[in-house]
Amino acid sequence: MRVLQYGDLQRLGDDQHRIVDVRVIAATNKRLAQAVQDQTFRADLYHRLSVYPIEVPPLRDRQSDIVLLAGYFLELSRCRLGLSVLRLAPSCLPLLEQYSWPGNIRELEHQLRRAALIARSEQGIDYVAIQPEYFNFTQQPSVTEKTRQAPKRGDKVTIVGSLRENTDQFQRQLIEQQLTELQGNWAKTAQALQLDRANLHRLAKRLGLK
Fold this sequence. Notes:
The protein is mainly α. Helix 4 packs across helix 5, helix 4 (63-81) packs across helix 6 and helix 9 (186-192) crosses helix 10. The protein has helices at 2-6, 32-37, 43-49, 63-81, 92-98, 104-123, 145-148, 163-181, 186-192, 197-206, and strands at residues 8-9, 18-19, 85-88, 127-130. It is 50% helix and 6% strand.
């Protein structure tokens, strides 16, 4: 507290004061003013830190920054993993821009690092492209009403073949529709359909979708 207030300190057992020439930058995702009122944060510390507060909007409100930040984190991962080229597949950009990013920049960084690791394991170390299915977001869309109604009530359904054949046809249509709505994102499709991603890929392969 003395360092923040006066810019000097005194070591334990020392009778001399030492000048500390530093600039303190503190960051938080909490509402400290409210925390002070709730008595969960020290008021004296808050007033010493809150000299020039800067409100930084959450990442979901700064879509134009997502591509720039993604490029920065991709370059870090490229160097860390020893890759020649690491890029995002074009279909990833709408996915990143539409996601709400509850974990803000740290979540973006960790998602890209994880996706880069998966991409390297599947594609090698030369030209590596991150695909939408490599992401694993914490918030997944639920099955939409449109999907729940597929095929729609009132549509004429021709019963041809066995139950297995008709079940396969329904599953194929459901997966195709969900993939279309989620822009080809297999990970989000698996979550929306409440399936494990590996099981979805196996099912899609059996149904001739892959």
